[in-house]
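User: Fold both of these, please.

Assistant: Here is the first one.
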Amino acid sequence: MEITDVQVNLCAGTEDRLKAYCAVVFDNSFVVHNVRVIEKADGLLIAMPSRKLTAKCPSCQYKNPIDTSFCGNCGSHLRDEATIKRLQRDTKIHFDVAHPINPHCRQQIETAVTSAYLAAVSDGGNADSARPRYHQGDDLD
């Protein structure tokens, strides 16, 4: 596996811990969107794309995040505040959509994304990296 491109989109504002979103291309064939660069006290964290765990509304079957009180579609009451707090404390609410399955792959991704992020920051974010190249549905042949 080879990382053939990393597109960095810097986030506006320097006060937020979220510094950038990236698209990582593997072997000029497969792209992973929404890889995040997050600033921590001890350095940068490269976070893989994730989404919230969902559960269906008993009334309309609409999928809602498990930490919501009311259905986003029909407005039915789903959970009380105490249940939501317990879920947030005891349940992993976010899960990775894509992630490396071994330490070598994780290190390759972290190195490539960190290098691309630092290059984009030193370039002032004015480079070609600000223009999206890989969108869902784009034909990459």
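And the second sequence with its predicted structure:
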Amino acid sequence: MVSQYLFFWQLSKINELKNRDKYYISAAIQLLFVSCYLCLFPTSSLAQIVPDGSLGAESSRIVPDIINNLPSDKITGGATRGVNLFHSFGEFNINQGRGAYFANPSGIANIFTRITGGKSSNILGTLGVLGNANLFLINPKGIVFGPNARLDLRGSFLASSAAGVVFNNGFEFSAANPNAVPLLAINIPVGLSFRDNPGAIVNASRVTQQIEGTEIPVGLAVAPGQTLALLGG
């Protein structure tokens, strides 16, 4: 299969999600899909967050914690290159009622996370960053955001079923062919690499937020001025 490189990339130029009515119709259809999925695969049967070891001594580490009053997995470690931090997992799932939070070391602006195990990811709880970094979540097999999925971060968020992220020096942080991160500095992400039949990105989140005393459905959301991008097959 031949990779197709999509050089569209600048966080500041990705359009915000628009057309709210169309979004809610789509979310209703996706909610039905997720409900059927969870009947077949209950959350208790889902593996959670499992590092794949592809980064060697720089592999991710999972620490049980309570974060924002939520039982959570705190994700530390990873490979630091300049302002970028790289994580690699065989499986990445968050059960309902739980959280997963990435540590945000000083000086890190972007956190890149790939899932390499050949299974889609199920985000049924809270996904967050303990800082201001942007978060990129890449799984070629797809990502499902369930009805209670929410984001807790101050930066931008991208979820994609791309095969990898391409950088300006030609390095590809690939989920399809996991590789170690070179020691040289890696600076600017310039595109996503897609292969044949990328998985779906399903957004069925129906979480609400209280605005002026009224519960308003907001679904997945990021802070004002930040970007939310869901790019899949």
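DSSP finds one helix and 21 strands in the chain.
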